[in-house]
Amino acid sequence: MLKIFISADIEGVAGVVHREHTARDGKEHDRARMLMTQEVNACIEGAFACGAAEIAVNDSHGTMRNLIPELIHPKAEYITGSPKMLAMMEGIHSEFDAAIFLGYHSRMGNEGVLNHTFHGGVIQNIRINQRDMGEFALNAGISGYFGVPVVLVTGCQHTANEAHEFLPGIETAIVKRTINRQSARHLSPQSAQTLIKEKTITALSNLSNFQPLLMKGPFLVEVTYLHSGLADAAAILPIAEKVNPITHRFQTDDFITAFRYIRSLIAIAGSLS
Ligand SMILES: [Zn+2]
Questions:
Q1: Which class for 202: exposed (0-12), middle (13-18), buried (19 or more C-beta within 10 A)?
Q2: What is the pLDDT of residue 59?
Q3: Which among 113, 191, 195, 247 would be 20 to 30 A from 156, CA to CA?
């Protein structure tokens, strides 16, 4: 009874390079949502081809209302809407056999098309125990917390490299090559979807090769903002200790607690600044 969890973002989908694709009011957003849904369906088809009994897809971008319901594979279930406590990982639990990260992007400060970490207008960097953590690493850590291995990530080559830093054996589907932060050379949608389906089958056919990302505590977390005004706003959270004008740090033994504090700092900085 194979159970698969899919976290689906949009920046790493083939064909997507610009805010007009990713923003709710963007002129090409509806097209990007279509491409995202088609890549999700390709992954779902691969999972069902491997005998999956249950597939849950979590819409992980922005409003988290991007997937086009009428077009989603009829046998998969999906999670939409926001806020969700685990955000891009809402719905994960220990009964899943594998997690797949679709349409992911690299962290702020790295190369990669549309790179950012959770909130491009707030976060410069997030470090845990001296390691730079983007969305891939933080979400893989949540998956690992529940004992679930991330077996496949799709996106550009820099996203794949970032994934390999944390999980050397992970499968990757590189559906586009970053030229710079707003340009890329893509596979056609059809080829990207074929690649994603094939890589899903490869990963799920070799599940015993993959290990969950186990983040060992205690966790020293450093959150660096784009400018000091954002840090000033987030300073109302009692756990935030000022390291320098743009960085807060805190310590905790629990990874999910660390994640909740990180999101709290981002939310406060983003809303009060
Ligand atoms: Zn996104």
A1: middle
A2: 98
A3: 247
The string of pLDDT tens digits covering residues 177-206 is 999 999 999 999 999 999 999 999 999 999
Residue 175 in tokens? 């559906």
- Measured CA to CA, the distance from residue 152 to residue 35 in angstroms comes to 18
pLDDT in tens, 164-175: 999 999 999 999
CA distance 45 to 169: 23
Sheet holding 247-252, edge to edge: 131-132, 123-128, 219-225, 247-252, 241-244
The alpha carbon of 116 and the centre of ligand 1 are apart by a number of angstroms equal to 9
Active-site residue list: 116
Q: Which pTM does this prediction carry?
A: 0.98
Token pair for residue 240?
Answer: 């935030």
CA angle 251, 256, 260 (to 5 degrees): 75
Distance CA 113, CA 118 (A): 15
pLDDT tens-digit readout, 87-127 = 999 999 999 999 999 999 999 999 999 999 999 999 999 99
Instruction: Produce one character per residue of 34-67: b if its CB has 16 or more CB atoms within 10 Å, e if not.
Output: bbbbbbbbbbbbbbbebebebbbbbbbbeebebb
Distance 1 CA to ligand 1 centre (A): 30
- Helices 135-145, 255-272: crossing angle, 10 deg rounding: 140
Q: What is the 127 CA–ligand 1 centroid distance (Å)?
A: 20
